[in-house]
């Protein structure tokens, strides 16, 4: 016998209780906390110095280190800087561009060889690339001064081969300055290039050959486009410090090869002309920033920024 539950007539089923409103998901702030140390570092060591430099560039040009400078919003300091020092500025851009182009050619060949041809010697070759960093920048540049001296092996050999005249020399010439820039900044080009080329699947290159592409065509259709992020990174990492460098021009060049870094250093430390030195520094930063933005946009790799 089955008992059947009966519901009183006129009563309706109990309506389900409404679910409590869902709590909004708690925002995860871990990422912002991780950014905090880097942001503080940039604020203390970049934003504050840049603000000080910008203020210095607008000081009264009539002041001095002993008497002090007044903030007079002297934008004419920028005009003075351009009129008096445009040649070292253009020279720095030219030297930086030439050194970057040479580093790109040499660095690409070296990175390609390490990535595809080095085999079990890959790690050793990478160590050799970064080995110059084991000593100081100054010592490395001084060693080039010894190599390129007038009575050295390099000059004697070039004179024997009639590449240089009997009284020809390398020191105190643009060749020496650019050679020093190439040597000191070549690892900055090789490492990003290697990181990009090493990711390329060799089967893609083989597939280009299977499709009857000549090696030259296969390189520019497959390898070069896939390595462009490394090319852009390497050229930026090389060009930016090369333009602002002053050690190579100081030790390997002459007053005729002064770069903008030498001018800024001289104005700050010897001449005591802080306003013009600050104006040159700000102009150099903004000029490089504009060049980098245009370059990255033309290269089509905005995601690198």
UniProtKB/TrEMBL annotation:
InterPro entries: MetI-like, MetI-like_sf. Keywords: Cell membrane, Membrane, Transmembrane, Transmembrane helix, Transport. It is found in: Cell membrane. GO terms for cellular component: plasma membrane. The chain crosses the membrane at residues 32-54, 93-116, 123-143, 171-195, 216-240, 276-296. Pfam families: BPD_transp_1. It is a multi-pass membrane protein. Residues 1-24 are annotated as: Disordered. SUPFAM superfamilies: MetI-like. One of its GO terms (biological process) is transmembrane transport. It comes from the Bacteria. The keyword Membrane applies. Residues 89-295 form the ABC transmembrane type-1 domain. Its main location: membrane. Belongs to the binding-protein-dependent transport system permease family. CysTW subfamily. PANTHER family: INNER MEMBRANE ABC TRANSPORTER PERMEASE PROTEIN YDCU-RELATED (PTHR42929:SF1), INNER MEMBRANE ABC TRANSPORTER PERMEASE PROTEIN YDCU-RELATED-RELATED (PTHR42929). This is ABC-type spermidine/putrescine transport system permease subunit I. It comes from Nocardioides aurantiacus. The lineage of its organism: Bacteria, Bacillati, Actinomycetota, Actinomycetes, Propionibacteriales.
């Amino acid at each position: 016998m089955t008992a059947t539950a009966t519901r009183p007539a006129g009563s309706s089923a109990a309506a389900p209780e409404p679910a409590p409103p869902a709590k909004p998901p708690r925002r995860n702030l871990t990422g912002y906390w991780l950014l905090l140390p880097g942001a503080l570092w940039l604020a203390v060591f970049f934003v504050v110095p840049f603000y000080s430099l910008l203020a210095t560039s607008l000081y009264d040009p009539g002041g001095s280190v002993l008497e002090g400078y007044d903030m007079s919003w002297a934008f004419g300091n920028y005009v003075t800087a351009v009129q008096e020092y445009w040649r070292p500025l253009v020279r720095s851009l030219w030297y930086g561009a030439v050194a970057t182009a040479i580093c790109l050619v040499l660095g690409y060949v070296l990175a390609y060889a390490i990535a595809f041809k080095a085999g079990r010697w890959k790690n050793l070759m990478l160590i050799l690339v970064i080995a110059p960093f084991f000593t100081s920048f100054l010592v490395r540049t001084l060693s080039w001064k010894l190599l390129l001296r007038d009575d050295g092996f390099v000059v004697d050999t070039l004179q024997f081969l009639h590449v240089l005249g009997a009284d020809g020399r390398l020191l105190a010439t643009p060749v020496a300055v650019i050679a020093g820039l190439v040597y000191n900044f070549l690892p900055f080009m090789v490492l990003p290039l290697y990181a990009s080329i090493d990711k390329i699947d060799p089967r893609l290159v083989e597939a280009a050959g299977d499709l009857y592409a000549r090696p030259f065509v296969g390189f520019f259709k497959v390898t070069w486009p896939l390595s462009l992020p490394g090319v852009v990174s390497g050229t930026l990492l090389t060009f930016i410090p090369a333009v602002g460098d002053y050690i190579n021009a100081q030790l390997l060049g002459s007053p005729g090869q002064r770069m903008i870094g030498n001018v800024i250093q001289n104005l700050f430390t010897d001449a005591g002309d802080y306003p013009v030195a600050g104006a040159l520094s700000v102009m150099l930063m903004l000029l490089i920033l504009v060049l980098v933005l245009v370059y990255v946009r033309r290269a089509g790799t905005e995601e690198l920024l």
